[in-house]
Structure prediction request, 256 residues.
Amino acid sequence: MTLNQRIKLLRKTLGLSQTEFATAIGITQTSLSQIESGKNGISYDVFHAIVSQYKIAPFWLMNGDGSMFPKPGEQGTGSALPLVVTVADDGEENIVLVDQKAAAGYLEGMHDREYVQRLPAFRLPGFRGKTYRAFEVSGDSMLPTIWPNDLLVCSYVESFSHIRESYVHVIVMNDGSIVAKRVFHGDNKEQQLLLKSDNPAYPPYPVQKEEVAQVWSVKARITGQLPAPDGAEQRLHDIEKRVIQIEHTISGKGGK
Prediction:
């Protein structure tokens, strides 16, 4: 089901005529008819008006994920949705890149269309149908899994209940900091998250959910680091070679 079809389904679920629905979201009946038929796309302003007016789940409207209306008591991850995206000519979303230089202004700019449109954007095979964002890693707290300057391609996490414990997530904090950590529910599951680094030099620490602006689930890593095997792996490889040589020697003697 396309976005246009979901808008039509929502209107019919609410029992509204095209005129009633269009008036409520600030457009004409003709414009709504063209949107529902797929002749016209939907602007950010119309999308925001629909979500705000009818309190529907933003991710359902955008991607068809989850339920049309938020479940009672479901706790969102700070901002309800990164509504501002960039779209290619074929109508599919681009993956917006938040590099280290842009990270400092991301919290303030993430809902600003001009800010988001200035960020680099790209496409990757297999990453379609959802809102993805890429973040450039700084620091060594996630070594040896993630290296400085790696790019983490992430999908948006709408609710804290959708966090997969022990998996790597990118957390955008209300103070503007952006960190990549393994996420666990804290001792107070309703109010806390526990963030853990893969580098043992960095101890885990709790954060309050109210301090979190966005959560992104890491789906892929783009890296320029291809380190050579360490000494232990090389020694194991040498032993394997010697065993093979011995087997060949024994086999050769047995054949005489």
About this structure: DSSP finds nine helices and nine strands in the chain. The first strand starts at residue 95 and ends at 98. Strands lie at 95-98, 121-122, 132-136, 151-156, 168-173, 178-185, 192-196, 205-208, 212-222. The chain has a mean pLDDT of 86.
